[in-house]
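Forum > Structural Biology > Help requests

Title: Can anyone predict the 3D structure of Glutamine--fructose-6-phosphate aminotransferase [isomerizing]?

Hi all, first post here. I have the sequence for Glutamine--fructose-6-phosphate aminotransferase [isomerizing] but no way to get a structure on my laptop. I'd be grateful if someone could post the structure tokens.
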Amino acid sequence: MCGIVGYIGPRNVKDVVVGGLAKLEYRGYDSAGVAALADGNIRIVKAVGRLSNLEEKLAEMPISGHIAIGHTRWATHGKPSDENAHPHQDCSGRFAIVHNGIVENYLSLREELMALGHEFRSETDTEVVAHLIEEMYNGDLFETMIAVGKRIRGAYALVVMAKDHPDEIVAVRRASPMIIGLGEKENFVASDIPAILEYTRDIYVMEDGEMAVLRRDGVECFTMDGEPVKKDVYHVTWDAVSAERGGYPHFMLKEIHEQPRAVRDTLRGRVSDDLSRVELPELGLQDEDIQAIDRIHIVACGTSWHAGLVGKAAIEAFARIPVNVEIASEYRYSDPIVTDRTLVIAITQSGETADTLAAMREMKKRGVRVVAITNVVGSSAAREADSTIITWAGPEIAVASTKAYTTQLVALYLLAVRFGLSRGTLAEEKAREVLAALDDLPQVVEQVLDTAPQIESFAKRYKDAHDTFFIGRGIDYAVSLEGALKLKEISYIHAEAYAAGELKHGTLALITDGVPVIALAMQPELYEKTLSNIVEVKARGAFVLGLTWVGNEDLEKTVDEVIYLPKTMPLLAPVAAVIPLQLLAYYAAVARGNDVDKPRNLAKSVTVE
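Reply #1:
Sure, ran it for you. Structure tokens for Glutamine--fructose-6-phosphate aminotransferase [isomerizing] below:
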């Protein structure tokens, strides 16, 4: 899940590559480095830690040339260090390489290469590839990379430059994401679009198993067997400013406040003007196809998995189809029971989550139809699924996901209504009610954002808490899981979520005087039950912050503090209820002095298993 940038052209290579890495630092920030070719030699500068450390080194040791590659790392093989930072070289220094992914057979290759006399400087799997290139080099860099690709196994995006090839960069993609930027007398390669958007909006999206040769005057694409591939140019339409903070102190806060717009954009064009039906032509399913579905498996990781739990409730309520929600990293190893009547819904913000892609591919092998819900047009998930629903959240830069989650919920609600209408399990009158409530959600979210001052005050008071508990029943519990994850991710406060009725089965032993408990009471049919559970934690000394609808003033008799949210349909409550929890995590992290957008040990796009 590292970030890669490569450039060939007349510009200052340091500005292009390091500037691009700054846009990709969300993909990893354990170390960074850059290699440039000038005067017949490859010069490498790299540094452990944030990109700013590399920039300081480059100020003392400037690089020049017309061809360069760079990398920002999220460590998998080898601890963060200068030695393990990319780019890596071979023994002779003729080749330099950057890599995103994992070389699964690196140990056997390393032993083989060491037996041939190669000396290694790092603990990484990537350095193996550099030495393998040296060993297999036949005078043609492109042909050598075809041969190297046949020797290595795993998921990887590789970008290579060579002293003997000063006018070309070779890029190889196997599973890990990579795009090519097309310019005038210059070309770019990167892990993601924001890295190059300052310079070009025309790109090639490299497919799995493709290679590219970049020169100043053009780009050629091939299969990994060397067969030419004709590529369509994808023109990027979103604004580069959307990938910047826009005046907010952190990307996360900006993205939290972008949720009314993100929800609105995800709904746009998908609900008929008379609110009678859902328009999802991209789904590619006719009524008879939907009627034939007898089970749905939702497959996802982390925040997307939490969205799937809400999606299960909505689909089962409206379409009456049994739904399993599966953790993607476990799914394909569990020998899931599927048939030609099973539908898999894969949810991934980036569209590049390795575990989710692996689950998708396994289901495709079994002949199961896969629908992807993703935020990235042209991502692996979008291309490999049978059909794709794009969540128009826009670029999400902060590692902790916010607007991606709420737009995933909207996409799942739309699917649930579409399925329910097709199967006749959702009455048209009820569908209109749901779609009207969805249409009102952007305004509801805007009102919820007004709770920020109250949330900030609470976060400052409890920033030093060692433990925090989130409780709820039904889909409130699903939202509690997401709230706890957010708090853990960026504030580093230990947090756990529990179905409120489970407290008496052991968890109450953890409740002591002053422990913060965030209690969600958004579901009318479970409201009184939830109040009883709140009383249980209050009796053990907890400080309880309650979330409920405007009008439920009796909650004040049971909790210490209440946040009132504007009313919407109970099944849509997660979109409203999660926002105070996102703000709580954000303000707690700020109060504790943490790096909100780049929490320790985490990266935005998890492209390794």
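The longest strand covers residues 165-174. The mean pLDDT is 93.
Shout if anything looks off.
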